[in-house]
Each structure stands twice: as structure tokens, then as C-alpha cells.
Amino acid sequence: MTDPEMRDGFELSETRHTLPMALLRLRELVMAEFRPILSGHGVTEQQWRVMRVLFEVEEVTASDLADRALILAPSLSRILKTLEARGFIDLGRSPGDGRRARIRLSDTGRAFIRSVSPESAAVYAKIGERIGADRLEKLLTLLDQANTALDENRTK
Amino acid sequence: MTDPEMRDGFELSETRHTLPMALLRLRELVMAEFRPILSGHGVTEQQWRVMRVLFEVEEVTASDLADRALILAPSLSRILKTLEARGFIDLGRSPGDGRRARIRLSDTGRAFIRSVSPESAAVYAKIGERIGADRLEKLLTLLDQANTALDENRTK
DNA sequence: CTTGAATAATGAACATGTTAAGTAAATGGT
DNA sequence: ACCATTTACTTAACATGTTCATTATTCAAG
Lengths: 156, 156
What we know:
Arc Repressor Mutant, subunit A; DNA-binding (chains A, B); homodimer; DNA-binding; mainly alpha; transcription (chains A, B); DNA binding (chains A, B); 156 residues; 3-stranded antiparallel sheet; WH_DNA-bd_sf (chains A, B)
């Protein structure tokens, strides 16, 4: 009920209607559906992302993995240590370049992904239904287009 | 140099095209434009969000502020302590209810927002240009619709 | 072959995200 | 008025985000 007072038009959009907030809000709502599943299986959202990527690419370096999973290198270092301790991944060094890490999903990790995937896919389907299939597709297209538009001039 | 996408369409990586990843990727690209400005003025993204909300609503409780700034209560407690120590906000207790916090932006905090706003607005405008005004508007509409769709059944 | 610069990954320090537990003040029923 | 419950906020503990520094390896002159 407490309305914001009148103020002369300073050039700032209302916080609720900015792109960063809209993206963050929707992402929080989506992850709120996934988080219980992941925590129920003892992994965090980021650990799951890392293993999902490894499930798809078979073998990558740390830099490549960081790019694909959208995780910064220092965070990834810690996560890899955790996942290795749990036996989900195998860590090594690239034969050609001693600086690069060689990261692979272990059989245990692969089995873990397979066991959780059905629940994850079910939640994703439910979210798709609530949003609407066509609307979700349009949204993903726009997100990809905006992403491309901003990524092009990134190294300005 | 740049990461080449080896796949040519029929073996697309699943992870890359999910809604959570698309939202996270675009948000990271957007915030990469804002972060230098904020860090240049000595505040984090979250501290800025909190002060932006306070700039609009004049006075709120902690719960309300947490909702509006999309920050969890424990994080907000720490952030408020930091902002108070810097003199950006004034903390008190609600006269009617001793549990509720009374949070207001100080004159110093208000002046800070005004001084940074032009840079922030300029970056936001530049982002809008790159994405395209119509495309951005459609995107914000879809985000809001998806948000509403997921928020309705949240307390199922 | 040697040395300085660049690259890949890790370590360090602090801020925030996340969940669970704890504290103090209000509320509701008796 | 009393007491259990609820509410609003805070603490605690650990994982991750973020920036900067450091180490180890490779690369590129010279």
C-alpha cells in the first residue's frame, strides 16, 4: 500500500522492469523447481551443470568446461576437487600440454546422471507446460538472439 | 582462438539450449557490462540492487526489501550491515512491530545513486540498442509472462 | 639454448547463495 | 494474564561468485 512518492524523472527504469532483474527472477523460479531434486540427490546446481556437460562432451579441459557450464575458473577448481573426491569424475593432465587438465566423467558419474535425468526431464516438461510450449520456444529464441547480439561486441 | 562449435546442427548439445542456461548466459553477458561501473564505484551488484530499491520505495522492511531485490534474507542481513557501516542506509525498528526492521536510504546513499545513475542508464541504453528495442520489449514481455505462469502455482 | 612473455590452472580473500538452526517479538487461544 | 505457535530477522556453516595473485608449463623471440 505504501506507494513510492512522486519524484522528478531521473533516467532510471523501475527496478522490477529491468532486464537483469527479469532474467534473475525467472531463473530463480525455474531453479526453485529443480533444486529439491538435485539436493535430494546430494549435488548442487553447479555440480550438476558440470556433470551434465561432461556427460555430453566426454572429455574437456578446465577452460572449456568453465565456458560450457558458465562457471568461473576458480569455482570450477573447487567443484572438480569435490566431484573427484566423490568418485564422479577422473582428473588427469593433457599429454600434449602439461598445463591443461584432462577431465572425464567416471562410470559412477555417468550412472548418476542417468539415474537423476528422468526426474529432471519431468520437471522441465512440467515447466514447459506451465509456460506454454510455443511461448517457451519464442522465449528461448529471443534469449539466444539477445545472447548473440551482446556476445558479438563483447571484445569491444 | 574463439571457441568453434564443432557440431553442425544434428548433434546439438542439450545443455546449451535449456532455459536455465539461456537465462544465466544472457544475464552474465548483461552484468558483464554493468559490473565495471559498479566496482568502479566500490559497490557490488547486490548492494546496488538493494540501494536501487530503497531509492524507489523510501522505506521498507527487510522481508519486503528481500523480495523486491531478489536477495535471500541471510544475504540481506549481511549486506545491510555493510551498507550501514558505509553510511549509505539508516537502520531502525518499526515502531508498531519490534520484529520488523525499518530500512531507509540515507542522504549519502541517495546522492550516491544519483551520481552513478547516468552511467548505469547509458549502459542500459547501449544494451537496448544492441539487442534491438522491439526485440528487447518482446523479451521482457515473455519473461514477465513466464514469471507469472510459474509464480501462480508456486504454493501448490 | 636461454630468457622473458603468454597461457592454464590453482590459491587466497572477501561477498553472496543456500539451507538449517537460533533469537526475539508478536499473535491467538485458553 | 499465560503459554504454545507463528513471524521477522539473525547466525552459522558450507558452496559458489568474483577479483587478484601465484605457480607451472609452454611459447616466442634473440
